[in-house]
Amino acid sequence: MSPVLFEVRDNVALITLNNPDKRNMLSLEVCRLIVDAVSQAEQHPEVKALIVTGNGPAFCAGGQLTDLTPDQQTLESIYSGFLSIANSTLPTIAAINGPAVGAGFNMAVGCDVRIVTERARFEPRFFGLGLHPGGGNTWMLRQLVNWNTAAGMLLFSQSISGREAVDKGLAWKCVEADKLVDEAFAFTANIRHLPKELLLRTKETLRQAGGTNSHQEILDRETTEQIWSINQPFAREAIDAMINKISSK
Question: pLDDT tens digits for 134-177?
């Protein structure tokens, strides 16, 4: 059985880390398989979103310790798995079923949205190995939470539960463990019918908005993109349908 499973259902791709005996650790082979799966999802013309989850008690226990060497190329190979998800053009959801540790924590915070269970746990654990955080973790975490939470987790090596993550704005909601993947799929219900290009363009604009303090810069980009969308058949049909609905009242 492959340590990484891939399927497409209802216009949504699901990547499942599938090595529960090793707590879904990110070996170099697993990272390559994740990169391939993300590429498949992005190239699939009907896939509108990507969900990643883990099989068994853990979401992901992080990188394989024997791969942690001072060689930059090796480290970048470890990073490649979670960065392919973090950099995906698709909207992404981490369905976090258990502990997300180290590089697994990076994978979780690299997704656009996190849905968790009571068993979920966000554990940086870099200091436990005498390591500086890596893989862009400090930047990704600061995009999601305030200084107090980021400092508590990274400077004081604190972990937080799934429910605490919701309270701190790190996760969207906490659900029952046996309904986690179904809840993640349900979360995509409002976008599965939309044109893929509309979703990709909106995500790219959202990313750019996070990298500037200029309202005008993003206003200009949004105006350009909104004009593009108004000219698309999907929008014209939706607008006309709403006009007809209002007129009939």
Answer: 999 999 999 999 999 999 999 999 999 999 999 999 999 999 99
Closest C-alpha to 124, from 148, 111, 141: 141
Q: Which residues, including other chains, have CB under 8 Å from residue 20's CB and lie 6 or more apart? A: 54, 55, 56, 57, 58
Host domain of residue 238: 196-247
Cβ neighbours of residue 78 under 8 Å, at least 6 residues apart?
26, 28, 31, 63, 64, 67, 68, 103, 135
Query: Which of 143, 168, 187 is the endpoint of a domain?
Result: 187
* 179 and 90 in a common domain: yes
Mean pLDDT of 20-25: 96
Residues 6+ apart with CB under 8 A from 132: 126
Of 187, 212, 236, the last residue of a domain is 187
Q: Which of 145, 162, 163 has its CA nearest to residue 154?
A: 145
With 0-12 / 13-18 / 19 or more C-beta atoms within 10 angstroms meaning exposed / middle / buried, residue 75 is middle
- Number of domains composing the chain: 2
> For residue range 90-143, what is the model confidence (pLDDT) as tens digits?
999 999 999 999 999 999 999 999 999 999 999 999 999 999 999 999 999 999
Whole-model pTM: value is: 0.93
- The answer to whether 44 touches 50, Cβ cutoff 8 Å, is no
